[in-house]
Every structure is written in C-alpha cells, then in structure tokens.
Amino acid sequence: MVFGQIVIGPPGSGKTTYCNGMSQFLSLIGRKVAVVNLDPANDALPYECAVNIEELIKLEVVMSECSLGPNGGLLHCMEYLEKNIDWLEAKLKPLSKDHYFLFDFPGQVELFFNHDSTKNVLTKLTKSLNLRLTAVQLIDSVLCTDPGNYVSALLLSLSTMLHMELPHINVLSKTDLIGNYGKLAFGLDFYTDVQDLSYLQNYLNQDPRSVKYRKLTSELCSVVEDYGLVSFTTLDIQDKESVGELVKLIDKSNGYIFAGIDASVVEYSKISVRQTDWEYNRVAAVQEKYMKDEDTED
C-alpha cells in the first residue's frame, strides 16, 4: 500500500513552495519522499524531483506546435499524459516500494473541477499501484480579506471535492502573511469553519458594487452550506508545528496513520521531543536568489 498527496490549487497559492517544505519535513521525520512534478510549465523547481513530466511533454513545445495558449496547452498536456499513463506508471513503480509521494500539479483549476483527464490519471494510478492519496487544495489566505473572493474560493473547493472524489483537505496557505493585506471582517475561525455564511452576506450587502449580485451571492452561499463539506485548516509552511499538524490530518484522511501505527507514533515523537534541522528558510533563500538572477539575465 502506497501513500501520498496530490497538491492542487489556483496559481500563486504556493503549491511548489508547499512541496518543497513538505518534502523536507517528511524526510526529517523519517519518510522517504518522492516529489513528482506534473506541471509541464514549472521549469524552476526548488526541490529534487524524482519524476518530471517535462521528460514526456513540455508546455512551451505544445503551445508552439499546436498554436495553443497556456490554458489550452495545459489541458492538452494532461490529456497527453492520460494517453501515455504507462510512462508515468513505469516511473513510479520502482519508487512505490518504499516512498511517500507528493504530486505537484499545475495551477489551472479547470483540471480539477470540470475536466476529466487529471481524475482519470489518478484513478488509473490508484488501481495499478494501490495508491492511497489525499488531495491537498491550497487557497491563498489573502482571499479571506475580500468577501467576494472568499465565496469564489468556497465554490472552487466544493466543486473540486465533488469532482475528484478523493479524501480532501482544504488549506488556507500563507497565513503568516495575511496581516499584510488588510484587516479581516471576522475572526480567522469564521473563514476556516464555514458554518454561518449569513454574516458574510450582510457584510457583502454593505458594498455598493455587490448590490445587484445580492441574490446570486445568497444562493451560492446556500449551496455551500447545504452540502456542508467545506472547511479549511491553516498553514504556515515555514512553521514546523503548523506543518506537523497538517501532516497528522492528511495521515488520518488517507489511512497512513492506521497502516503503521507504531511507525507513525515514532515519527510524530520526533517532532515534539527534539528540534529538527528545519532548512526551509535556507532553501527558500536559494530559490529567491535564483529567481533574481534569472530576472537580471533577462
């Protein structure tokens, strides 16, 4: 039985940064981690990549040869991966014996709530490699500062959960930066618990720009509440305790904690008993320097 995470979310939500920090954290507590890059547009990876989709197909080549834009090109790449799933299975099979997988996906949200190729790829991998996966959907916490954006994030999360049909955890990322974007209308627990959106509707009604969308907003909030599926946990990827709490949630959702209870206890004890050599800040600094060097060359 093989365990892992699929990391999804809109552009800028921090997926690649998450994979970088999460892979380090899991390695520090004793897991062998294989990061699988399935984003054909991600050519500046801060982590060591075990499998890279660019060996199979590249977005820039697809855009050039097929006269497609970035969105159409990404859809084409996922459809091509689905047709060539044997390539990915062959790459993953040797690693599946003793590795924990992190799948880094593109930020195009259509791939996860109304397009079938990504879902089909994961379904085939689950069956062929006996995978137990959890979908970790990152939502930039800055969206909480605008009620309209927050409602959009709720709808995206709900749609993805229903479409992907996987154990699913919604995460408000970059919570350490949320104070930089203005004051929240409510406490953070209001946005994580998603229990009574009528308060949000009252707040939206105070904005003259949203008056004509009042009924639509009300109906959308009702849909989210009627399903009762959406909630969020918070994450500061630079904080060991924050990452550790998220790992525990993920392990419960995909069954890792029940597959090897004794091993899990040992892993978690490493977090609480001793200081781990957390190198996220150093690696992030190297990535930032790399990006600045690229800009200078351009």
From TrEMBL:
GO terms for biological process: cell division; chloroplast organization; embryo development ending in seed dormancy; shoot apical meristem development. InterPro entries: Gpn, Gpn2, P-loop_NTPase. GO terms for molecular function: GTP binding; GTPase activity. It comes from the Eukaryota. GO terms for cellular component: cytoplasm; microtubule. Gene3D superfamilies: P-loop containing nucleotide triphosphate hydrolases. CDD domains: GPN2. Keywords: GTP-binding, Hydrolase, Nucleotide-binding. Small GTPase required for proper localization of RNA polymerase II and III (RNAPII and RNAPIII). May act at an RNAP assembly step prior to nuclear import. Belongs to the GPN-loop GTPase family. Binds to RNA polymerase II (RNAPII). This is GPN-loop GTPase 2. It comes from Brassica oleracea var. oleracea.
